[in-house]
Amino acid sequence: MPGCGHAIDSIQNRKIIQAGNPGKLKFSLVIALSMLYLPLISQSGWSVVANSVWKITVGKKQPITLLSAANSAPKYDALESLERVPFPLDSTKIHFEVIDGKTYLRFPLQRAEEIYGFGLNFQTQNQRGRILNLHVDHYGGQDNGRTHAPVPFYLSTEGYGVLIDAAQYLTVYAGTAVRVEADDPPQLMDRNTNPAWQAQPYSDAVEVLVPADGVEVYVFGGPSMLRVVQRYNLYCGGGYLPPKWGLGFTQRVPTLYNAEAILQEADEFAAHDFPLDFIGLEPGWQSMAYPCTFKWDDSRYPDPQGLLSQLSVKGIRTNLWLNPYVSPIASLYDSIRPYSGSHTVWNGLVADFTLAQPREMFRQHFMKNLLNIGVSGFKIDEVDGFDSWLWPDVARFPSGTPAEVMRQTYGLTLQRMTAEWFHEKNQRTYGLVRGSNAGASALPYVLYNDYYSHKDFITALINSSFIGVLWTPEVRASDSAEEWLRRMQSVCFSPMAMLNAWSSGTKPWSFPEVEEEVRAVARLRMQLLPYLYTAFARYQKEGIPPFRAMQLEDGYDALSKLDATLAIRYQYMMGESLLVAPMFAGDSTRQVALPPGKWFDFYTGAYVGDGEWITVKPGLEHIPLFVKDGAIIPMTAPRNQAPLPGEKLSLVVRKYGQQEGRYMLYDDDGVSFDYEKGAFSWSELTAKFENGAWKPELKIGNTAAFNYSQNITWIFMGQ
Ligand code: GAL
Description:
The structure is a single chain. The protein is of the alpha+beta class. The protein folds into 4 domains: 5-235, Immunoglobulin-like; 246-519, Alpha-Beta Barrel (TIM Barrel); 547-628, Sandwich (Immunoglobulin-like), CATH 2.60.40; 632-717, Immunoglobulin-like (Sandwich). It is 21% helix and 25% strand. The protein contains 14 helices and 34 strands. An 8-stranded mixed β-sheet has the order 1-2-6-7-14-13-9-10. Residues 1-41 have low confidence and may be disordered. The structure holds beta-D-galactopyranose.
C-alpha cells in the first residue's frame, strides 16, 4: 500500500503506518511553512519541524523522550541557513506498526550503504550487520549497544540520518533481519556446494523494536554525512562552546588528597613548567562518598572557599567528582526522600529528577555550597551502570516514570540541571559525565570511562562525532614511557586534555625519560587554542563536530575504495584542516589515509601526499599531524594557561601549502554567556599570492570581542 498514509488494520488489531513521499508534495508550500517553523503535516504523517528535518509520531506520544530530557532548543536560524533537501528516503519503504504495546520500526537500506552512529561504540565504526541493545551502561568490552551514550541515531553514506527519540531500551537490527517479503532479498545459495554462502545473509533494512506503544522518529537530510550530523547537532541545540580554560590541561588528583596536597600539586605543575588550567577532586573531597553527602570533608578541607580562592589566584579552576546518590547522612536526605525511587544505590537515595521539587533542592544546595564559593564544574560519575549496582528495572519512582526511562535519561538530566545552574550564574562550565544519550550536543560535558584500551579510546573519539557527544581518551597510567607518551599525545588532541590520577597518583612527568616530549605536546595544545576554540565555536553555531571521523570529510568515499584492504581507522580531523593520526605503543610506523587535495606535515611543512595512503615514521616526539593545502592555523606562543578575559595575546599564524587561504577566527571573553547577546567576533584571516609574494591580511570582526594583538607573526610553510 505505498503512500496510503495511516491505515488502521483493525482486524489484526494493529496500526500500520506507511509514509508517502513528501518529496512529491507541493514542495514550495513545505518550504514556505517550514521557514515560519510551523510544523507542516504531510499526508504521510511526517511533519517538517525545521529546514530538512522531518518528524513523525507513531502511536502514542510518550511523556518522556531523550530530546525532552535533554531539553535543548533547536537552533532554527542556523538550520535555516543550510541548503534545503527533499525527504531523503523512499518513504514508501518506511514502515511502522504498533502491536500490543510495542512499536516496530523499519527503514530501508541500499546494497552498498554503510551506517554509522547507534551509540558510543569502541571497536567498530560501520554498524551495518550488527544487533544492538541500546542501553545506558558502563562499556563492557563489546559493541553490543550497552554503552555510555547509546544514542539511537544513525547516519548513512546515502546522506540521511534517523533518530528514534525513545527513552526505552531499544533493540536494533542494523541490517541483519531478513523478511519473507524483503524488497531486496538475499541470494539463495546452497552451502553444500557454494563457498560464497554466508551465515548472515544480506538484509535490506534497519529494524528497531521499541518497547512502548508509540515513539517519535526524526529524519535528517544531507546531502553529505557531515550535513546530516550538523543538522542533528543543530536540532539538539548546537554544540557546546567550553570556556577557554576548559580546553587547557586538567589533572585529577588522588581520592584522598587534602587541601595542602592540592596546593602543592599546583606548585609542582608550575615548577615543571607544565600547563594546568583546572584540577579535579575525586570522591575524597566529600565527607562520605558512594553514596554522597555533597559536603566537603572537614578534616581534609577545613576551608574549601579559601582553597578555591588560593587556586584561583594561581589561575586554576576546580572540578568536583560526584555521583548523584544521596547519603543518609547528607543534609539533603530528609527533604529528598519523599521524591526518590523505591531502591537505593550504595544505600543512597535516587532522586526523581523528573519532578521539580528535588531539582530545586539540589539547585539550592549546590548553588549555596559549591557554585557560589567558586566551584567551576563537576564530574558526574556512575549515571551509566553496571546493572548490579544501579537501581533495578523493577524500581518505582514517585512521578510514575519507569525505571528504564530513568536509566536512559538520568545522565542527560544531571547534565542539564548542572548546566542550568552555571548558566544562571552567567558562567561557562566544562565537565565530565559517564552516561549520556541523544540530545546532548549542547550540554557542557565530555564522556569518559574506566575501560583503558588506547586504540578503542580513539575509536570512541571518532564515533562520538556521529552522535553529538564528546569523548576524552583520558590518561591514567602506563606500562612504559612509550605508552605514556603516546597516550598523552592522543589526549592532547581530544576534547579534554586530562590526566586522571585518581588511583594511580601519576603526574605528567611520571616517566622522566619522556617528560620533555609530554610537556611539548601539552604546550602545543595550548598554542593551538585559538584554532581549537574556533572549532568549538563552529560546533556550537554550525553543528560541525570539532573532532570528526574521516567519514565526515570530503573525499572519504574515493579514499576508502582506493585500497579496500586498508580500513580507515584510528585517524580523525581536529577543526577545519588538521588531520590527527595517533601512534600506539610498539608501533614505529603507521598508515594514514589522506583525502584528495595536497597535504603537508604540520611540523615541517613538507608535502606528504594527495588522495592516497601513506606510511609515516614519526619518531617518538611527534603525534603525526597533517594539514590541508591552503589551511590557515592560528596559534599563540606556548603558555601554560588559557588567557583570562580581556587578556590580549599575540597570534602566530601558520599558512600551509600553495593555495591561497581564508580562515574565520572566532573569539569572545572565553568565560561567560555574553556571546548570546552578541559579544563575540568572527575575524577574517586571508593569505593571497600577489605579484610573486604572499599578502597576509586580518580583518577584525568586532574589536570589542577580539582578544588578540593586531601584530601577527605569519609563518608560511610548505611553499
Ligand atoms: C570511577 C570513575 C573514575 C574515578 C573513580 C573514583 O567510577 O570512573 O574516573 O572517578 O570512580 O572513585
